[in-house]
């Protein structure tokens, strides 16, 4: 009988062949009747194998053992790989079931998203602006939609969030930065939505710090979509008015635009020059703030600094090429204002600067 016909399991056959091998010493030989019966007591299949060896000897057995060892090693390797794959799948399934959002809050969010969907289907009209927001949130980890009251910022971010949900994102409306860290799913893709980021009033420094320190790294699997009112006075403008250099630095670090002006044309730099906030003026100028903006009354930041006698700021503006020839609505240049208000040191500095040009 051929050995292939009796092999039902590689590992068991390997063990059987090794046992048979132990009944022989040295060169190929023939089993004795006593040996044969002893082997038969172990297994019928081993007895048949022993009978086969009476004709074939040990050379074939040695080859069989080597082949079975190789097959067993391959099987063990495959089992090990399969085991690791199953462990990984089990871990992923457990983490997916471990949703950080409590069940009661999930129900509330589902109702909220249902309301968004109904409004979206009944009232939303797609525009180039809304399409740009969708493309941006697909490519960027954080997107802010700004604008004046009543232009549809909320509808735009709700529409974008619903479309991202269709793309496999868990959409979670939040109002507090701590909720992002708390409800961020470790496996699934998350999109956190903040409507009216700055609130009814302006964003306070404490609130900004809380968002800045939320300890969540936004990336492809954790995105942030916010709407923020823009009423002509930005957060960086208010930080300049309040002489808050720390907040200015935080906003600039987070890519805030320092050149957005109010309806009257007053920029954050203009406010710093007007009030004599040396550090804020310096921070804004280093970050690339425009020193040539003009208000509705014809004032530039240099006009404001010269009128109020802020020598340090005047020198900083002159070094960055501030225009001395612009006149305000009364026909006064910055030099005229310095003379009218008897700021002699500023007059001398402007005169020296003009000679060096």
Describe this structure in words.
The chain has 357 residues and is α/β, with parallel strands linked by helices. Helix content is 57%, strand content 7%. The protein has a four-stranded parallel β-sheet with strand order 1-4-3-2, covered by helices on one side. Strand 2 (169-173), helix 8 (177-183) and strand 3 form a beta-alpha-beta unit. Helix 5 (103-123) packs across helix 7. The longest helix has 40 residues, at 58-97. It is elongated.
Bin the strand percentage.
Answer: 5-15%
Average of the residue pLDDT scores? 81
Judged by helices, strands and strand pairing, the structural class is alpha/beta
Largest sheet: 4 strands, parallel
Helix content class? 55-70%
Question: Given the structure, what is the number of helices?
Answer: 17
**N-to-C SSE string, H for helix and E for strand:** HHHHHHEHEHEHEHHHHHHHH
Rg result: 40 Å
Give the distance, in angstroms, between the N- and C-terminal Cα atoms: 109 Å
Q: Which spans of ≥5 residues are poorly predicted at pLDDT below 50?
A: 1-11, 18-37
In the sheet with the most strands, the strands line up as 1-4-3-2
What is the number of E strands? 4
- How would you sum up the global shape? elongated
GO biological process, one term: protein K6-linked ubiquitination
Domain Novel STAND NTPase: 124-215
ANK repeats: 231-263, 264-296, 297-329
Coiled coil: 69-96
